[in-house]
Amino acid sequence: MDKKKQEIIRLQLTDTPLPDVQISGLPIFLPGWVWLAGAGPGDPGLLTLHAVNAMQQADVIIHDALVSEDILSIAGGDTEILYAGKRGGKPSMKQADITDSLVQHAKIGKKVLRLKGGDPFVFGRGGEEVERLVEEEISFRLIPGVTSGIAGPEYAGIPVTHRDVNHAVSFVTGHLAGSGETELLDWESISKATPVIVVYMAMKKIDIIADKLIQAGRSPDEAVAIITQATTPHQKVLTTTLHKAASDAKNAGLEPPSIIVFGAVASFAERLAWFGGDAGVQK
Fold it and tell me: Could you tell me which residue ranges the Tetrapyrrole methylase domain spans (predicted)?
């Protein structure tokens, strides 16, 4: 991408406030309800109108680590903001404590918004939280969000499906709940199922995943794209190959959060990149 195009994109990432537009037909947030909303992958522009509506009505917002300050600034002035983030290797709230907090605030009549990065039902443990709400007979609403497994590649210029390349794609977590042993997944079956695999939370397991895919028969020269801080001004994209993915990621100093695309479509980042970030596409 040329420098002029990157600068145009950066100029679009301004602090200009949105116009005061009134949209009819959006729901009223009632006391004692819990709404679970996806905040998208990072770019505030990817919030849905339902999510914005919820943020401006909520009494309390309980958010995770991937929800940015830019997004939280949309909340109403009197809204209580509570951090409930969980990041690997760092002190974090337990899932049970987070769910307890939702229940406790709802039972005293607050309008409770659980705001989660991406989509609450895609590797977000939203299903577990809703099960508890049902047990406690607490009314709830679900608001889908844009998941990073689609938006991240798209901001890198990668179509997760392309008629000339693949007609199927698998979305996989690189971090198993509780065990942390990525190798326990049936990577051979995953490898054979679809030509393109999009993996969430995989940075610390990329060496294991790459080895398992090669053992399952995928070419060591298969294209791989690693996207970090997707859809934000700090987005970085590294294109590499399966057998060099782990070493290239280490040499580039890439850090989570990340989305990793395995398969031929990953190479599209070198031709279709449109979002400048602070580094563009590295190869």
Answer: 34-245
